[in-house]
């Protein structure tokens, strides 16, 4: 009887353990994503990325690898000079980020502008790329992907007809077509970047779309 009781206790423990979720397949949210690691590219991967960037029609300069304090770096980065339209405030970007951004600008942005606004985009406004800071500028938080030159923040779009669409004013603004345009470029970003955050993510992103190539996928 003692052996039978012990056997039943063990089996009950096995059944209970099998019912406890282990988190496999769960997507990390931005607040629980792993801390970014410094990008390291071997020479073959770097050449392949640069070749793809050239094939996608970008003009760029290759920047020297640099490391800074607090874990920040600009490793395997480029400076985009021409991707078919001007983009304000672009600094160092990792090559994979620059390539995804070039394709998003060339394909998704113009397609959405013609579909919803009947006018092409002639300029994109950005808050920049590299910035050595923690996530959301909160002291003690993990390093932002901006600290690895691996993120870009987009704030607005200027159309050929002179109209300016901004995330701050138009994401929840009165114009349905502007709202649909911004959601279209946001959703297209989710198919090209690892992580996309917009106004629906939190109040800190009420005025821009954040794109990065860090641990993902995550789209909000």
From TrEMBL:
<dbReference type="Pfam" id="PF06904">
    <property type="entry name" value="Extensin-like_C"/>
</dbReference>
<feature type="signal peptide">
    <location>
        <begin position="1"/>
        <end position="17"/>
    </location>
</feature>
<keyword id="KW-0732">Signal</keyword>
<dbReference type="InterPro" id="IPR009683">
    <property type="entry name" value="Extensin-like_C"/>
</dbReference>
<feature type="domain" description="Extensin-like C-terminal">
    <location>
        <begin position="48"/>
        <end position="220"/>
    </location>
</feature>
<protein>
    <submittedName>
        <fullName>Extensin family protein</fullName>
    </submittedName>
</protein>
């Amino acid at each position: 009887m003692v052996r039978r009781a012990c056997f039943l206790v063990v089996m009950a423990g096995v059944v209970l353990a099998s019912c406890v979720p282990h988190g496999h397949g769960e997507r990390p949210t931005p607040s629980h994503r792993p801390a970014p690691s410094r990008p390291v590219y071997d020479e073959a991967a770097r050449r392949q990325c640069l070749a793809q960037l050239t094939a996608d029609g970008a003009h760029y300069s290759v920047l020297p690898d640099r490391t800074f304090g607090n874990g920040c770096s600009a490793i395997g980065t480029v400076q985009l000079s021409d991707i078919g339209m001007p983009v304000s405030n672009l600094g160092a970007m990792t090559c994979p980020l620059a390539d995804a951004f070039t394709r998003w600008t060339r394909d998704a942005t113009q397609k959405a502008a013609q579909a919803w606004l009947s006018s092409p985009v002639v300029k994109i406004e950005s808050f920049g790329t590299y910035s050595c800071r923690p996530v959301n500028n909160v002291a003690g938080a993990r390093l932002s992907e901006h600290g690895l030159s691996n993120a870009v923040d987009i704030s607005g779009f200027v159309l050929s007809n002179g109209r300016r669409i901004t995330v701050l004013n138009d994401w929840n603004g009165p114009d349905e077509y502007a709202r649909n345009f911004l959601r279209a470029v946001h959703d297209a970003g989710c198919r090209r970047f690892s992580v996309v955050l917009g106004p629906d993510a939190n109040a800190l992103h009420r005025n821009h779309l954040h794109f990065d190539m860090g641990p993902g996928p995550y789209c909000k």
